[in-house]
Design a protein that fits this description.
Number of helices: 10
Helix content: 40-55%
CATH superfamily of the largest domain: ATPase, nucleotide binding domain
Number of strands: 10
Strand order of the largest sheet: 3-2-1-4-5
Number of domains: 2
Distance between the termini: 30 Å
Bound molecules: 5'-O-[(R)-(carboxyoxy)(hydroxy)phosphoryl]adenosine, zinc ion
């Protein structure tokens, strides 16, 4: 069975063809990052305009690279939530149009559930239940997963998402947007113990996250207590930038790892899945791997190229919704 996936929730325009929920025949991702970077974050109007310009050629390329034809698609799948409303609408409108004209089912997919499914694309069928951690630019959420399609949130950020914290700290350090991958690389040269940044656990037993305090702590560290500008005012040398990056990253990773392991123990689950842009972070992958081994938990790491927003994870998950005959109608909404 061939499913076309479409993903336009943020600043990547992506289309993919996936066979039987696992075999990725194509996965085209066109990133708008260079357009947004000079503004220090995603500008929704620019994102919408770029999706509109790119979507048809991205779908065409995905079909061509998969060496198939659009008429061979058994279903059209699309991320319809969560994301930027205007951006989601462009992918959804394209998917509805294709579903209507080809007379094949429309399958709408939750983009966070698809991030979790990225691990299935690499590891094949995974047993359930599992604890799933989604760490992206917009979300930091722990789910209790009972199947590929059934995920119940058990903890979430009360302020910034983990990726957002990486991006805001990168802005303070003058590292550009998105800063997650840059901090990841620079931190390798830094001392993780150089600065003790706060770890916010939000009380004993809480599975929620908070990353706004650490962002402010980095700002004060780099600019002094009186800083209001949100920018670094002291001149930091490369060595100090590396130390701040490594210390900040270690604090975020500590909390993510501790809470994920705690969630697995709380729900007596011995499998962990994780996904989203921050799941590409090399320190998080190492530390989560070590902690899972210590607690005898099986960790399913997604391949790095499937951590960022992509349509293969949408089409892969849609296969399971197809099997459950969980189809959407042409009035399906985009939900930010
Ligand atoms: O999942 P994603 O591609 O888009 C959203 O759905 O938000 O995640 C993007 C986020 C950005 O905040 C980016 O800085 C972060 O993922 N990110 C990383 C790394 N690669 C991407 N954060 C830390 N380390 C990385 N290697
Ligand atoms: Zn995402």
């Amino acid at each position: 069975m061939l499913i076309l996936g479409i993903e336009t929730s943020c600043d990547e325009t992506s289309a993919a063809v996936v066979e039987d929920g696992t075999n990725i025949l194509s996965n085209i991702v066109v990133s708008q990052q260079t357009l947004h970077s000079r503004f220090g974050g995603v500008v929704p109007e620019i994102a919408c305009r770029e999706h509109t310009k790119a979507i048809i050629s991205v779908v065409d390329t995905a079909i061509a690279e998969a060496k198939t034809s659009i008429n061979e698609m058994d279903a059209i799948s699309v991320a319809n939530t969560p994301g930027l409303i205007g951006a989601l609408l462009i992918g959804l409108t394209c998917a509805k149009t294709l579903s209507f004209t080809l007379q094949v089912p429309l399958i709408t997919v939750n983009h966070l559930h698809a991030h979790i499914f990225a691990s299935n694309l690499a590891h094949g069928p995974i047993g359930y239940p599992a604890i799933s951690l989604v760490v992206s630019g917009g979300h930091t959420t722990l789910f209790l997963s009972e199947s590929e399609v059934k995920h119940t949130p058990v903890g979430r950020t009360i302020d910034d998402a983990a990726g957002e914290a990486f991006d805001k700290v990168g802005k303070i350090l003058g590292l550009g947007y998105p800063s997650g991958p840059v901090i990841d690389a620079i931190a390798k040269k830094g001392n993780r113990q150089a600065v003790t940044f706060p770890r916010s656990y939000l009380g004993k037993g809480s599975l929620d996250f908070s990353f706004s305090g650490i962002k402010t702590a980095v700002l004060y560290h780099c600019s002094g207590q009186d800083s209001k500008s949100g920018k670094r005012t002291l001149t930091l040398h490369d060595r100090e930038i590396a130390d701040v990056s490594a210390s900040f990253q270690e604090a975020v990773v500590d909390v993510l790892v501790d809470k994920t392991i705690f969630a697995a123990r709380k729900f007596s689950v011995n499998r962990i899945l994780f996904g989203g842009g921050v799941a590409a972070n090399s320190r998080l992958r190492v530390r989560l791997g070590e902690a899972a081994r210590q607690h005898d938990i099986q960790l399913y790491s997604p391949p790095k190229n499937l951590c960022i927003d992509n349509a293969a994870m949408i089409a892969g998950l849609a296969f399971h919704k197809y099997l459950a005959k969980d189809f959407s109608t042409l009035d399906a909404a985009a939900i930010p």
